[in-house]
Records
---
Amino acid sequence: MERKQQPIGFFDSGVGGLSVLRHAREMLPNENFIFYGDCGNVPYGEKTPEQVRTLTLAACDKLYEKGAKAILVACNTATSAAIHAMRDKYQIPIISMEPAIKPASESGNPGDILMMATPGTVSSARYGRLVERVGCRDRLINIPCGGLADLLEKGEFDGPEVESYIREILSPYAGREVCGIVIGCTHYSFVVDTIRRVAAELLKGACDIYDGMYGTVRRLQYVLEKEGTASDGPGGKVELFASGDPAHLEVMQKILDM
């Protein structure tokens, strides 16, 4: 197969990366995709970096073996733990996720920045270096959302349990002026509307939402064009794979078709 026509691999610890894949399908209609969700081992955010690195490489081996011309790691926790090992191992472009704290910091709006992410992302050295580069530590509030990714794995994004969780984690900051809320896990992208609504009730300030998936897909598009591997079509095909219970594939297809 000509390299241009090879699919783009997407990887996530579970179903969260489908939020990024759905956006990529809109932006890159000529491309085909392979998505692997390690649903049998979710959540990654509460595992050690060594465990995450081992799981990530094992999963991405499958994408590489299936002929992916590039791999987008649609998981901030996996990016933090394994991105350097992946770039050393695979001879294809590896696109990483990064929490969008820089655009939040540069917005010009007054107030603090709330960063919602898994405990693994918040505690990672890679994220710490990002905070230092951006220089926003004095106005940055990290909110480790343990359990939220696992809650969203079922593909139910509008239930009272999800809203109750978001209300509980934002309640300690009630009345605080907030310039922006950074979505630091691709699972949370599915509940942005709920986050926005609860924030409007509890917080003050702009409370704009910053989601790194948009910049990540733009980066993917740029790299494909630079490498000369962007497809000229036909595109739109997606193959889904998951570890664990085969029922995960049904949930993934449901999310993809939303």
---
Amino acid sequence: MIKLFLVEDEIVMRDGIKKQINWEKEDIEFVGEASDGELAWPMILETKPDIVLTDIKMPFMDGLELSALVRKELPDTSIIILSGYDEFSYAQQAVSLGVTDYLLKPLPPGKLLECIRRVQDKIEKERSQQGSVWSDELAREQKDAEKNLLFRALVTNDRPLKEILAMSDHLGIPISARYYAVMLMTVRGKDNAMPSEDLRSALSEIPEQIPGWIFFDRNENGFAMIGMANSKEELDSTKDQLIRRLKETVGQETDHTWFIGAGETVGRISDIGKAYYSANKAFSCRFITQLNRVVTSAESDSVRADLYSTRLTADQADAASPGSAGDGPALDLSRAVTDDSSREMLENFLRTGTLEEAEPFLEGVFRSIGENNLKSRLFLTYLSMDMYFTMVRFLRGLGRRVDEVDEKCGDINSLLKNHVTVDEIRNYLALYLKELILLRDHNTEKRYGKILREAVAYIDENYDSEEISLNRVAQRVGMSPNHFSSIFSQEMGTTFIEYLIGKRMEKAKELLRTTQMRSSEVAYRVGYRDPHYFSSTFKKMQGMTPREYRMSSQGQE
């Protein structure tokens, strides 16, 4: 329902307008009247009408002054000016203020109502478009969430095939083919910054243009792509095409770096998890080799074998000599290096690596050492302690105590006193590394907690504004919309749109239970410009119309 406020200093004229139109029949709520702009202004701020119908010549504050205030504070309110003065200067000022219409008194019969109806149609059309935007945004966010669920189901294989196929069918994403492949990609800007929304959007559109590929935005963890085809040759061809397009797009940003890990090709949907693991193994090579390159799962071992090209210093070589303390086979010094560069790689992994990459990363480090070197107990001890101290420094940098992790993983000194195997030491370091990643992520969540509290408080305070949006709230808390959406969903257990709609529905139910407001009034109070869209959303969320809900609530009482 449209709300209208009338400002007219001539009482006969004001009463005539009030009685001339059947406001209820026209689906218009007459929310107030005043004899001049000064009296009208506080009432307009309180009632927030959709249309202000005002005379231009009035004492204390005229219609043009009032229109300027309305345009500044309530920019969506339409203004119709009435004037008995056919003066061009008034019309000019009215146009400059953005007045919707300008009518001359005396008004021919039906002229005012015709004008009001025209403005009413314009407002309702805008509201309908607003509802459409909301509907599109909700559908888009919901689809992104469902796509992420499909990705998780495909790579973890934790759901029955029938359910996975139903999920893909619901999303309109066909996944039946003879062969599958997975690629992982990271893109970073200057100072390791996340790529811009424009670049993320451009990258996400590329797989959509290449047959058989699905794109998944993993936010801070980069991007994932799953490809499928009915022959290996076709899959390899589209993969090469996709990589070329991705490289070209990122290459347009001169200050950005990128890395792609490509997994092995598999022949079953249930084996996509294996393809993902092999892609992750290749992807983890970004910590130990140069960026701006593609590493396949087949190449990952050779990349790791070339990891340490610097020889040990003289002191390290003496400490690791074959004759030391009954040590084992001779060391290959060209591969047995634990210098500053290798520590930097571990530190980089601790800053940005994921739990899934911990084991492939360590596997690569141990593989790069060389089999003979790993048989040397002295060198193995040295390597383990060097990595351990690097992780302890990172742990302290998080503001955490060493015994927090040692209690869970055990004491490394006690471990190394025994004749442990390479696998036992690697498993210990992997466990320690994973615990550090969990603590790092917990610290990050605590930081996000403050941001989310601010975001939720802003939503709770402004849920009734039709202008509130994901972009606006993200801007409020200083995050990109895509990243904020992801963090909000992860931490709140619901999407931004779902939370906002839930908040509006709870307030709507309260108003329906405790007031006699019409459904259209309730819609406006909770942030909806289009009553029909509100009713549709309410029914979808509650299983009944607003009217049915009110009757049900009254019946229960």
---
Amino acid sequence: MCYYTRSIIEKRMQNHLKDQTSPYLLQHVNNPVDWYPWCEEAFEKAKREDKPIFLSIGYSTCHWCHVMAHESFEDENVGKILNQYFVSIKVDKEERPDLDSIYMAVCQAFTGSGGWPTTIFLTPEQKPFFAGTYFPKVGKFGQPGLLDLLITVHEKWHSDRESLLASADVLVSHLRGEKETEADGHQMASEPDNRFPADERNGCRKSAETTHLNEQLLEQALDYFKKSFDKEHGGFGRAPKFPMPHNLLFLMQYYEKRGDREALEMAEKTLQQMFKGGIFDHIGGGFSRYSTDARFLVPHFEKMLYDNALLLLAYTKAFEITENSLYSEVSEKTAHYILREMTSAEGGFYSAQDADSEGVEGKYYVFKPTDTIEILGGEIGQEFNMYYGITDEGNFEGKSIPNLLHQHALKQDFERFIPIVYDYRRRRFELHVDDKVLTSWNGLMIAAMCQVYRVTKDKTYLRAAVNAQGFILAHLCEKDVLYVSHREGRRGGKGFLDDYAFEIFALLALYQATWENTYLEKAIQFCDKVVADFQDEKQGGFFLYGKDNEQLIFRPKETYDGAVFSGNSAMAYNLVQLYYLTEQDKYGKLAEKQLQFMAKEAHRYPAGYAMFLVALSDYLDPPKKMTVVVKDKEELPDMPCRIGLSTIVRVLENPTSQYLLKNDKTTFYVCKGRACQPPVNELEEE
């Protein structure tokens, strides 16, 4: 078929997704399914034609989303049935976390688990009456096929609609009554969540009536981690194993404040094992989504911006505590990967890289021994293969994922050959990059880059953080209003709680890394916006979407720390930080109120709320605080790099009646352990 003819057919087949910017939606633009984005037009069509909604939620680098697309959504028969009997809607979960949260809760209520792709059947009034995740085109292994399911739902819609509507009303009423609805991180559709007790999954916990703010929650969480720790392989619980860096941050903070050596050892073992395993990309840097096995050897190969941001926070913290250079090296390799492959020309950070190449998961990442021998030569190639575990039998479908799990002593001998192997790997296959810029995930990476700068003193990382923040202000912000995403010159809808919470988190990190008060002022502005638009004044906490967002069938409030810590945990942390930085009672009261709310949510299972526990620990046991009265900023080159990551620094550009200049020079006021030291002009490096 000539190109001209093919282009005409493709143009004719394009559905209502053709004007979208989401890479995920655009992957489906030429499907025979007449997809709509989430819009009023789709629901009006469903009402007018008396059809149910077929809702499919996923993201562009999701392996099982690709599988279902190839099996079903590219199939003419499936397309014909969907177009005849349903109105079909595609949603990018990363652009619409509100819809993802609501309908993931629906999926969990129906099936007891969740994942992507998420498949939901709705009434034209947006009420769900059936849900699942991945469905094969034709039933197998006891799982219903999509073709049969579509016919069954169509027939029941016309023959027994009353029972469908009744079940939808009951479910929506139940979900509206829940205090939280949340999915556990970034799971594959077929993947069970075995890490936590059954009654603690899927947002089904009830809050305690009263919970005092004390160390009991911290101790209970630590006890859980100790009991579930895998002493041989690191990590917690059984496979699959997710990085969960905020759990490691909690453990390291617990060691810092309370000296529990075992807490640090668990964090270190996990960090070392993740680096040595295949979940870390030894050729290109950066971490994959999770490990499918207990050893961290075989990953689910997609790379997400947020995972790498949170892992940077954990590895840099480990380096500060232990001074083990391995952790700084891993941090820099990961940061280099982000700057090389996941950063736009304008400075924004991209969202993700796919697990698949040419439709095969992991194809981009694996090697045969002959590959490296061909490019490095016989002797060096063989030594390289031996060091990185590249063997004839392989460790993944007959090929090898480079790893260091078999190495007891790590060497630098082969570092100089990595660029050669990396260039070879990039030439042979391509990876799809989801190049949309998400405000929330960029906030996490900005904070991470600030922290890498502070432990390495390399301003490359600070410039990356400053540039990304500039991108947000230029493209994703209007005064105090944030927007979700940006791609190809167009931005998405108004921001959700995570966008504001993680942006505040970033601004506080920038303030600590630069001592520029403009970042603190902007953080305060966004915090006030969150309180005004997202706060639940009656029950406490913050809703996922605000007063200016689209109002849906109910208003979720996410508190549990899954793959990414929740917006409510982030706000607990932000408010505690702002209280210490501003010394304003307003933020002290807000912080205490948020901590009380989160303590009630966490009381049944504290280990699932690690970032909240970090905030609670800082509230109960204030970190070291430093007030700097600046005489001349030129006197302070790289000063933030000399201050511990946990120290809270407040910068005054002019002296006050309480904080004076000593000897007419820049003066440091340091308080630690609820005691303050005399002001000094010179500061010892921490």
---
Amino acid sequence: MKKPRSAALPVVLCFVLFLGTGLGLHLLLPTKEYSENENRYLASAPAFRLRTLFSGDFTADFEDYVTDQFPFRDSWLDLKSRAERAFGKTENNGVFFCREDTLISRFPQPKEDAVAGAVRAVNALAGNTGLPVILALVPSAAEIWADRLPAHADTADQSALIQSIYGSVETETADICAALREHAGEPVYYRTDHHWTTLGAYYGYCAAAEALGLAPQPKERFSPETVSDSFYGTVYSSSGVRWVKPDSMEIWAPAEGVVLTRYDSPEGTVSPVYDRGKLETKDKYSMFLGGNVSRIVIETGNGGGKLLVLRDSYADCMLPFLFAHYSEIHVLDLRYFRSSVSDYAAEQGFDSVLVLYSLSDFLTDTSVSLLAS
């Protein structure tokens, strides 16, 4: 009697064929060093050594290498995220899949000692400089676009956090959260990035200007220019999602006659306010002021006093709105600036200090403690 053919055999053959095809393509295709979609460097083939083999390091490194270099990796990741979404998953890698084609990062509840440390640093800055200090904290899209989040999304109450911090600092404050909430129905954040858009930065500028004692310029004074319609930001990179449409980017404030010097080196380099060459790279947002650097000095050619800005990257697209109000603006990034902030303020003779940070960086970036230096 003829034995029935095993039903498992075709499945096994397909699996072997899949593995064989994957191995063949892996050997034929060139190794990729960098993933534009994930915004990170990919693992390369590890060197074989008996010591690392027996310790298990070689096996772990080789697994990372195979995972990162798997043929058509981006397509598989896209298929995976689409399948998970179809089965009701609403989050991946701390990023929520939200309404209106939006990706929003979770904002976790911060530790109490982080909040207290940041408050102490701001108060020390005000005491050490003797200057008017304005603290301006920017909430993330998880707060302003909470209505886009999936049901039961676990994220902290940023408005309450900001109000608690503002009630503890011995400085003036700018209520950027209220300004953004008033315009929550507008595109005040990118859908694929953690930053606010230039429109959102304009509303933030209005709140900061009022806290600085300035009359903000009306929106009608500006002529927005779209400089990119293919921007995919950091949230897109970490989400694993590939179905979301790209963002567009705009320039609002003119920069004619403005001299911007970036101090990548002691002598400094004169650079454009809007570095359009960055629009050809993955990090398109670094077009604003050229991206991160320890110190920037901006000579506007306008009247007004001198302003010191202590910042994270949210400041970059907002600062051009302040050009009309000051003759000189100095910008320090404390992740790279290692001199005393109070000494620098005394040497330069500033009129005011603006501490402009996203709430997330203000509470998690350890360099914030250097405000007290």
